[in-house]
Amino acid sequence: VQLVEFGGTSVRVGGSLRPTCLAPGYAVSTGYMAWFCQAPGEARVGDAAINLEGSTTYTDPVKGHFTNSKDIARNTLYIQMNSLEPEDTAIYYCAAAPSFSRGWKSWALRKEGYDDWGQGTQVTVSS
Predict the structure, then answer these.
(1) What is the pLDDT of residue 25?
(2) What CA–CA distance (Å, rounded) separates 83 from 73?
(3) Burial label, 1 (beta-carbon count in 10 A; 0-12, 13-18, 19+)
């Protein structure tokens, strides 16, 4: 599965971005997808996930200012980022899994749940 992220850039504190993940050949309508971030020197962690039914889950730090969505017709995943802070600076990765053998609610934001990854897009937030 090929995943291609874009839309990351440098913004000022309080700004907004909407990184995009293209998934040609992957059925976002029947799969599981997520956004992970990796700050310099830190581990890659899950921020937001969406299942085949469109249900979403978020890690606590991004609740209320990140929104995960998908466009089935375009096979595309989005993450709307609002009220960005310097601590949001990271590379943001798109991940996909055609199925979840483990419970989605427990594993949706864990790297182990996903089979395919994009190359990442850099988001930098400055004051």
Answers:
(1) 80
(2) 29
(3) middle
pLDDT at 26: 84
Q: Is the pLDDT of residue 82 over 90?
A: yes
Question: How far apart are alpha carbons 22 and 7 in whole angstroms?
Answer: 11
Whether the CB-CB separation of 4 and 68 falls below 8 Å is answered with no
Q: Which residues of 29-67 are buried (b: 16+ CB within 10 A; e: fewer)?
A: eebbbbbbbeeeeeebebbbbbbbeeebbbbeebeeebb
Residue 39 has pLDDT above 90, yes or no: yes
User: Are residues 121 and 7 in contact, defined by beta-carbon separation less than 8 angstroms?
Assistant: yes
Over residues 100-123, the mean pLDDT reads 92
The pLDDT of residue 102 is 78
Tokens of 42: 């830190």
Contact 127, 17 (CB under 8 A): no
- With beta carbons less than 8 A apart as the criterion, state whether 91 and 120 touch: yes
Neighbouring C-beta atoms of residue 98, cutoff 10 Å: 13
